[in-house]
Write a structure and sequence with these properties.
Helix 2 links the parallel strand 2 and strand 3. The radius of gyration is 29 Å and the shape is globular. The termini are far apart. The protein is α/β, with parallel strands linked by helices. Helix 7 packs across helix 8. Strands 1, 2, 3, 4, 5, 6, 7, 8 and 9 form a nine-stranded mixed beta sheet that branches. A seven-stranded mixed beta sheet has the order 12-11-10-13-14-15-16, sandwiched between helices. A two-stranded parallel sheet has the order 17-18. The chain is built from 21 helices and 18 strands. Among the domains are: 205 residues, Spore Coat Polysaccharide Biosynthesis Protein SpsA, Chain A (Alpha-Beta Complex); 109 residues, Rossmann fold, CATH 3.40.50; 111 residues, no CATH class.
Length: 642
């Protein structure tokens, strides 16, 4: 047998479906086998593989042992002369495997081969070719020197930026998302080191393949799409910790002496440095708008103070200095707090949420104002004028931000995307049905591009580049049943990354794409959108928990004395108050892992059914509808009936 393809999957069903479809086409005419190792996914991946790809050899783990362990499970049972480790969030060209086989046959010194990787927008991914992470290489990567000098042989040895992306070359490290390996090289070097849970195992294996006397090659004559970040989100602290811990394992394993100690010390420092940058970036991403709002409101209040003191009191120094350090910060805190509670920072361009939040804040301020000491009650007029200014200032900030992001001032509406569908009449209709079922807001369908002539066709595939320019299209959906992976990638290369590309796999209920190499892939499916996953709803649920805790306080003496379950109730009360539990959550069920994560519940939807017996399937469905349709009233109803 010539080739064994091994794919490890964890909760990326729709990406796996697309990857297996492309692998099936690429395996045509090749004596080979395909293995999928599922690490206890909760998204029906196993059932999808069994039903849609019966030829695949499936290993369904009952836990998640990690990437290295799972790959080794299949590699040990594989029969191919060559083994390909392939990520599930990839798409291969129809001739990828054949070209790799030909190259490896022609180069008996090659132990492993990597190809050209591009992201979902068609951009080249620099991790296609890498150098070993020596202390200097790691230092340059950690502190950004490799980014500042991307073509430097001195500063960017990690991504070998000095090597042209279209030049075949011997390299040190290959990317684990696509490692085409000679079985004899694996037998000499050993399989993946299972000390690595995720990340680092590809570096370690590449190093050991070279130590075994083979070479690693970067081979850009074929390419694959890699939708980065589908199995793990790369903008998280967990990614930083896991990645650099993997580097520490590698250093301890392959370096010795004083150099190893220095390297490990640097890597520990890199963890803290990168973690700090991640925290700062995440904080700035959320804090910039409230910070601008607060600054604008504060400056406006100062001007209003000076104006009102001169105009009404005829004394520029009428107001005491405490308005600057007490009153104004208090006003801003209440206004911005109520805007946040109203969801004004979750959907920052919804004027209704902004107005509702500021209105509620002004009412609260009016009530609080009367409770303040006389020295801290400068003027009600200042509060009212400040409220008007706060609305005008925050609205103006959003108008400018919206124009910067979308190019127009129509708040609440993003730039309309001009959409082209590339495929047959039948597949285009299916794509439209999928889009309509998930919502086509913000999309303007220009027409269909394909060979068949009908009223919707505006051109043929070889005219696609011109059609994008003529109709100013900024989104293209390719039907993979009608256009091959190789042609899709060729179109992406010609048109460039300014357009958003998506692919609908054959017979799939998903549309997959990504417009940024640093962001996880986008996914349109007919899957239901869960209310409980929305930030505003989650905040409402937490506030409801706190209000219910507060409402129980007046009756505490009663239930502490007379309730037979007072100790359990008291414990639950404290756990909900501290955020360890919620009053209503999911009932226990194995499929809860596929639902949005919430805190464990004191009560659950089946509790409202009293003595009715429900089976496992009903419990799963009740949990599903609870997550999908969550409203405040739903929790109150369940609590009342329970």
């Amino acid at each position: 047998m010539r080739l064994s393809v091994v794919i490890v999957n964890y909760n990326v069903r729709y990406f796996l479906e697309q990857a297996l479809g492309s692998v099936r086409r690429a395996m045509e005419g090749i004596d080979g086998e395909v293995w999928v190792v599922d690490n206890h996914s909760a998204d029906d991946s196993v059932r999808m593989v069994r039903e849609r790809f019966p030829e695949v050899k499936l290993i369904a783990n009952t836990d998640n042992p990690g990437f290295a362990v799972a790959n080794n499970q299949a590699i040990r049972q594989s029969a191919g002369e060559y083994v390909l480790m392939l990520n599930p969030d990839t798409l291969v060209e129809e001739d990828t495997f054949r070209k790799c086989l030909d190259f490896m046959d022609a180069h008996p010194d090659a132990g492993a081969l990597g190809c050209k990787l591009i992201d979902g927008s068609g951009k080249f991914l620099p991790e296609s070719k890498r150098g070993f992470p020596t202390p200097w290489v790691a230092f340059c990567k950690t502190f950004g020197l490799s980014t500042l000098f991307p073509k430097s042989k001195l500063f960017n040895r990690y991504h070998l930026g000095y090597l042209p992306e279209d030049q075949t070359a011997e390299v040190d490290v290959l990317a684990g998302c696509f490692m085409f390996m000679r079985k004899t090289a694996l037998e000499r070097s050993g399989l993946l080191d299972e000390a690595f849970f995720m990340y680092g195992e590809d570096i370690d294996l590449s190093y050991r393949i070279q130590q075994a006397g083979f070479k690693n090659y970067y081979f850009p004559e074929t390419r694959i799409i890699h939708y980065k970040g589908e199995s793990t989100k790369k903008g998280s602290l967990n990614y930083v910790r896991t990645f650099y811990q993997a580097m520490i394992i590698f250093a301890r394993k392959h370096f010795s002496g004083q150099g190893a100690g220095l390297f490990i010390f640097m890597l520990h420092g890199a963890i803290w440095f990168r973690a700090g940058l991640t925290l700062l970036r995440n904080f700035m991403g959320k804090a910039w708008l409230p910070a601008l709002d607060a600054t604008a409101i504060y400056l406006g209040l100062i001007l209003l103070k000076d104006f009102w003191a001169s105009y009404y009191y005829h004394d520029p120094n009428w107001f005491k200095s405490n308005v600057l350090w007490f009153n104004f910060p208090l006003y801003i805190l209440i206004w911005l707090g109520t805007v946040w509670l109203s969801g004004g920072y979750d959907a920052r361009y919804k004027v209704s949420r902004l107005l509702r939040g500021l209105g509620l804040g002004t009412l609260i301020l009016s009530a609080v104002y009367g409770l303040l000491d006389l020295d801290y009650r400068p003027s009600r007029a200042l509060v009212l004028m400040g409220a008007v200014w706060a609305f005008c200032a925050t609205l103006g900030i959003r108008l400018v931000a919206h124009f910067w992001e979308f190019g127009h001032f129509r708040l609440g509406s993003s730039r309309l995307k001009n959409l082209l569908i590339v495929g047959s009449v039948q597949e285009s209709k299916r794509v439209l049905e999928l889009l309509n079922r998930v919502g086509m807001e913000g999309k303007n369908l220009i027409g269909r591009v394909g060979e068949e002539a009908d009223a919707d066709r505006i051109g043929e595939p070889d005219q696609l580049q011109d059609l994008v320019r003529i109709y100013e299209a900024n989104e293209i959906i390719f039907c993979s049943r009608d256009i091959g992976s190789q042609d899709i990638m060729a179109h992406m290369a010609r048109i460039g990354p300014a357009v958003s590309y998506k692919i609908v796999p054959e017979e799939s209920l998903s549309i997959i794409g990504s417009s940024n190499k640093d962001e996880p892939g986008e996914l349109y499916t007919i899957d239901i959108r869960y209310n409980i996953a929305e930030p505003g709803r989650r905040r409402d649920k937490r506030l409801l928990d706190l209000l219910l805790c507060a409402a129980m306080l007046p009756t505490a003496p009663f239930w502490l004395v007379f309730s037979s379950k007072r100790s359990r109730l008291a414990l639950n009360w404290f756990q909900v108050l501290l955020g360890y539990k919620t009053w209503v959550g999911y009932a226990l069920h194995a499929q809860n892992a596929s639902l949005p994560v919430i805190k464990p519940g004191v009560f659950s939807p089946p509790d409202a059914l009293h003595d009715l017996k429900v089976n496992e399937e009903t419990v799963a469905r009740l949990n599903f509808f609870y997550a999908k349709d969550w409203e405040v009233e739903r929790d109150l109803t369940i609590l009342w009936k329970s």
